[in-house]
Amino acid sequence: MAKPIIAFLTDFGTRDHYAGVLKGVVLSIVPEATLIDLSHDLPAHDVAFAARELAATYKYFPPCTIFVVVVDPGVGSSRRGLAAEVGDWRFVAPDNGVLTGVFQEVPPKRVVELTERRYARPTVSRTFEGRDRFAPAAAWLAKGIQLVALGRVITDFQQLDLPKPRQDGDVLKGEVVRIDHFGNIVTNLDRKACERMTNGSGALRLTVGGRSIARLVSTFTEIGAGEIAALFGSTDHLECAAHAESAATALGVSVGDPVELGRQVNVS
């Protein structure tokens, strides 16, 4: 039988003990588990960012992988803890919308509220539920319990209103949703939406944060020195990148800035 896999996605950082102790709790329950760090360096308290990161990554993991997602500005409040089964994967997270991106791609088979105390630590800290509720729940799932053993089934879980591209006449409008480690500007314009724009007449024009992007390329190596170009990244969303520097810094672009793909100016 394959070893269970548990993957962690948090905003804890790596300077403090928080990320490491999640693993200690899991291994005390299911010592044979394989533990993977997706990232612990998400922007603090940014639930929407975490939702997009999770949606961009979970599908590349083997079936039965369990994801522990802790980006939780509401820790200690009345917000609920959740466990969900989606496709071939399971997720443990706060009920704050962090699973929205996954749910939009694949409707959940079942979502339960974490109410069964036997699958949490004996004392649950109001400032560290990731350690005391979420990590133990994930470990017990890895050990073989059924999702419904963790608590009652619910259908009123929280969902975020994640911005989607919208068509406004001959212009496809979106926004910057992420600046990655390299300074690449990731938008919410997906390949399918952009390709629909190519069916009409006339050349296309891309603007990001009010700045015009002259070229659409296929790879980073096609971008010349001092140039900023657009390309479809690994998640099949339109990105803007520079040659060996930060495109976001060069353009002065931030998350939330507008993106438009329209007609009139040639994009080669």
Notes on the structure:
The longest helix has 15 residues, at 129-143. The chain has 2 domains: 5-150, S-adenosyl-l-methionine hydroxide adenosyltransferase, N-terminal (Rossmann fold, 3-Layer(aba) Sandwich); 166-263, Elongation Factor Tu (Ef-tu), domain 3 (Beta Barrel), CATH 2.40.30. The chain is α+β, with helices and mostly antiparallel strands and 268 residues long. The mean pLDDT is 94. A hairpin with a 4-residue loop joins strand 12 and strand 13. It contains 6 helices and 14 strands. Helices cover 21% and strands 28% of the residues.
Largest sheet: 8 strands, antiparallel
First-to-last CA distance: 52 Å
The residue ranges in which pLDDT falls below 50 over 5 or more consecutive positions are none
Identify the CATH homologous superfamily of the largest domain: S-adenosyl-l-methionine hydroxide adenosyltransferase, N-terminal
Helix content: 10-25%
Can you identify the CATH class of the largest domain? Alpha Beta
Strand runs, count: 14
The helix count comes to 6
**Overall 3D form:** elongated
CATH topology (level 3) name of the largest domain: Rossmann fold
Average pLDDT: 94
Radius of gyration: 21 Å
Strand content: 25-35%
Give the helices and strands as they follow along the chain.
Answer: EHEHEEEHEHEEEHEEEEHE
Number of separate structural domains: 2
Secondary-structure content class: alpha+beta
CATH architecture of the largest domain: 3-Layer(aba) Sandwich
